[in-house]
Amino acid sequence: MAFPQNFLWGGATAANQYEGGYAEDGKGLAVADLITDGNKDEPRKIFYRFPDGREGTIGQGECIPAGAEGILKEGYYYPSHVATDFYHHYKEDIALFAEMGFKVLRLSISWTRIFPNGDDAEPNEAGLAFYDKVFDEMLAHGIEPLVTILHFDMPVHLATKYGGWANRKLIDFYLRYASTVFRRYKDKVKYWVTVNEVNVLGGYWTLGLSAEKESLEADGKKSFNQGETPDAEAGLKFQALHHLMVASALANKAAKAINPAFQMGAMLALSGIYPATCHPEDVFGAYAFRRKALLFSDVLFRGEYPNYAQSIFDEYGFTLKTEQGDAEILKSYPSDFLAFSYYRTTVFDRFSPNTTTTGGQQGAPNPYLKTTAWGWPIDPDGLRYVLNELYDRYQKPLFIVENGMGAKDTVNEDGTIEDDYRIDYLRGHVRAIKEAIEQDHVPVMGYTPWGCIDIVSAGTGEMAKRYGMIYVDMDDKGHGTLKRSRKKSFYWYQRVITSNGEEL
């Protein structure tokens, strides 16, 4: 059999897209709570206000202008506030996951549910108690929690008062938060991910960053591409991520001191990239562009910045600032396993722009691949390629913690949902994992498809872009009963898990 008997089959979610319970039981305001809805053609945005009353908006990958503060704007819909309401449906949802056969569920803890402002002296007991109930319910159904400590869930207060992760003080605030949840759940949670997709160079949303100037206009236009590089604030983002990686290493240290059995993962967006042609500029261009993503896993697993890091920093005119002890910390406390998201591959074309987003690195279209309704290429073979690439580079166990396709689902008159397109997508990727394990001998810990239940799309803020195997009755503006329904893919995945990947 290709899949080991202890293979962790399950699904993946994130609090800011799934949990809801906005401002309930003492929860504080996160930057994700300030992001409006959007769609394929209309980007999500964050409103800001200057002290003198001037207002404006930024896209998800941008920094907030210097001196401005993120605000909630009346008359706009904010999907994270309810999301798909795991906060009030966790027992029902966990029972459905157990029915599918889940061995593991990836979910995140909301920082502001534990420390409402991020810098509080004491945690919010109501928030801690909520996750106690969630983990107890999961364990009662035989489901292991895989917990992401920070998943695009930046406290607004830390962004406003301290300038987000550009300020080293956030290392201490993060460690207080991480150590609190390590101690509280040391007998309930074994698998942890310190930071979600650390190589996504977000701005205000993910890192709480303020630009050095009031105006964000560059070359007469603004980019709304989440995490796009290059940009004028790239150096600020690199510096912030250095602080975040130091915090991640220190969290690994703290975790092992609390429970040596903890398994600590670092997580990146690592979709694949191919050269457009055999032209040397395309071949090396693809190689060099890939290293922009691998830079961060090199630090987190090898414990030091690679030789090529300076060439990337030079591209943006950036000089990294470190403090004494940073190098030793990064070297001494690497992660145990590499968790990554895989959605697609792309093509490096020397004549096309290339960017980095949550979905992975993006370049030119691939004429050999079909795409989803949202234009994401479908490439199961690319997953096998990436699994081999990553294990060759790091020799660390791998965990595919996000994989899936956003699609529009139709509910038939009898209530059924025939999502064969999702089954085909997932089947191809499970087969690729099987080949990587069986033929290439790559150690893969588990597989948690993204959005095992319908949740709000991070990129577009839609419900129409559905990923789940469980349907949630809610539309793009939050209207609906929130009723849960099993899709055809639910029963398919149930058979996959029951057969340990033999029945595809």
Pick out its properties.
TIM Barrel; 8-stranded parallel β-barrel; 34% helix; single chain; 3-stranded antiparallel β-sheet; 504 residues
Overview of the molecule:
- By secondary structure, the protein is of the alpha/beta class.
- It has one domain: TIM Barrel, CATH 3.20.20.80.
- It is 34% helix and 15% strand.
- It has 14 helices and 17 strands.
- The chain has helices at 15-18, 86-100, 111-114, 125-140, 156-162, 169-184, 204-207, 234-258, 280-302, 309-315, 326-332, 380-394, 420-438, 488-498; strands spanning 8-12, 46-49, 55-58, 69-71, 104-108, 144-150, 191-195, 263-269, 272-275, 337-341, 345-348, 355-357, 360-362, 398-402, 444-447, 470-472, 484-486.
- The strands form 5 sheets. An 8-stranded parallel beta barrel has the order 1-5-6-7-8-10-14-15, surrounded by 5 helices. Strands 3-2-4 form a 3-stranded antiparallel β-sheet, with no helix packed on it.
- A hairpin with a 5-residue loop joins strand 2 and strand 3.
- Helix 6 packs parallel to helix 8 (234-258), helix 8 (234-258) packs across helix 11 (326-332) and helix 12 (380-394) packs parallel to helix 13 (420-438).
- The longest helix is centred in the middle third of the chain and has 25 residues, at 234-258.
- The protein starts with 7 loop residues before the first strand and ends in a 6-residue tail after the last helix.
- Mean pLDDT is 93; it is low at 216-230.
